[in-house]
Amino acid sequence: MQLSELKDWTQELRPHLAPLAAAFGALTGAAVFFSLTQEPWWGWGLLPVGLGLILGGFSVWRPLSAVAWGIVITGLVFCLSAWQVARVDFVDFQAAQKSHWLTGRVIEVKTNPDKPNRATLVLDRIETYGLGEAIVLKANIGVYVSQIRDVNIGDTLALPVVLLAPEGPKYKGQRDGRLWKFFNGGSVNGYVVGSVEPTWRPEPEMTITARAGLWLDEVRQRIFEESDSYAGGAVAALLIGNEDAVLPDLRDAYRETGLSHLLAISGMQLTLVAMSVYGLLRWLGALVPWVALRVNVRLYAAVAALLATWGYTFLAGASVSLVRATIMASIVLVAVISGRLKSALRGWCAAVVLVLMVSPVMVTRAGFLLSISAVLGLILLAMAEQDRWQGGKISSYLRGLVLATVVAGCATAPVLVGIFGQYSVIGMIANVIAVPIMAIATYLGMIVLILWPFGIENYALIAMSAVVEQVNSLAYWLSSYEYANVTVDKGLWWVVAIFAVVVMVAIYIQRWLEAAVALGSLVMIMLVAAVTMPKPDLMIWDAGRAGLKREGDSYRMLWAENLDNTVRLAKLARVKLVGDTDVAETVDDAYMPVTDLESFAWAERNKGVWVVKPFTCGRIWQKLAGECWVDE
After folding, report:
1. H/E run at residue 369
2. CA separation (Å) from 2 to 7, 47, 85, 370, 381?
3. What are the backbone angles phi and psi of residue 204, rounded to the nearest 5°?
4. Which residues share a beta bridge with 612?
5. Which residues contact 307 (CB under 8 A, 6 or more apart)?
6. For residue 59, what pLDDT band results from cuts at 50, 70 and 90?
7. pTM
8. CA distance 429 to 418
9. pLDDT digits over 122-148, tens only?
């Protein structure tokens, strides 16, 4: 496709303008609602609804009618967002500052070598008393080891606990996790203030679904125990999605080089599984003339491929993010297998609208945004490349894999910058090299899982480990470069989005030089933005509990009330620490900012000028934090 054919390609998108407008309208409505600093009135969503209806009623131009439809969906999802927030039953963390009883089943006991007299009980099947009607799925409760000497996994305990309120951002750029606590997306944390008492609660009836879940848990645990030592824990992550054994430095290397998605079972692995099963069954069916002539092999192979994909999903734990990736992968697979790529685009639009209408808060989840952006880019690429994807040659396969990697990287780059403030300069190159290698590892992983019930998986497991080690070495090598992954201002996401669109359009119309120039320009802009980004002389974090002073490109801690927590924050903020870790625990007032605020979340001083950030308490979920209770 040449530049002159761009108009023809856009003509193919014209019938999909209304679905696309609806999808982007849903994203806009939810994003606007959750990005506001103060709680809005739900009725404001009726304004775009009315405007869209008026615009659509008087419009005879099809594109304008599609825009009107998108405006209507924007208002509807805005109203649905307010409704979702209004009906949430959340934990009353203010009441939880006094001792309340909590019961739950012990599923894990965590010990800390640095504090041998302390432990953490991980509980599920939680029931709380006097803390609201919210359903808590998991609790991490700190106890003394002496209190749990007779406690075993599976015991049900009653504990008087104080729960820790969720905290807001402690440094500039940190994501605010209070929203997820509000929607019960995570576990609660706390500590015991009395005795730990065994209790009895009737076990739930073992349904067929529950028995299947227990069996899958046992299978996953057995696979994990036998594979967690291979390739730094990466093999276990690829086989069953369990990343517990992945070495911390290996995880950091993957993150620095933009390869983190390869450590998790994602759409790429799921697509490879489905297409492999589909291709193998079609090949086997073609070998038997009687079957090929009398049976719709294509249909049965497609059904088997989708069943294999969903089976792999449940084997990997069927987390919300994994199920979401499976749904998105299934949309693409059904379209590719059936040859109806245009239907895939409509399916993507329908999936986005339905997800956001059911749960608008999903727009705040990085995983959701990354999934839908990558899948949209791949669907559009498939529409542009559909004539060339029919072949089965290795060169065609590699070409498609490289182009898909570049497109997916461009599509997700604005999300990564906007949410995390990070851009992987060499991520595109790393993915182009690593994705084909990890595809081979995925195929070997399928062989491992097939051979596992027969006890002859060792050779395949060793081969899979050897392949994964190549990607590990690549990640370690590339992460050693200082600017492998740079920190930039989150507000630059729109610049990244513009260049990403230019790169993808150039790829769709096969203007390779323009694509390379645009991609190179984007990398240079991000490097310049990272180098010129101001580095504060002083940083005061965690409401004054930690202070850091700049020395060159690194920082030395002046004080830290909780040293371990400050080191963790520095790692999250991508701040390099120098000097020894023997620092004062008391605040040095000589470095504290002069401000009218009685308290603040964080502060930075650059060239004598202080920037002080107050606590954000304007939204309902932000008021869960202890620093916001003084306003009530």
Report:
1. helix 366-385
2. 10, 43, 49, 29, 15
3. -65, 150
4. 603
5. none
6. low
7. 0.85
8. 21
9. 998 888 888 877 788 889 999 998 888
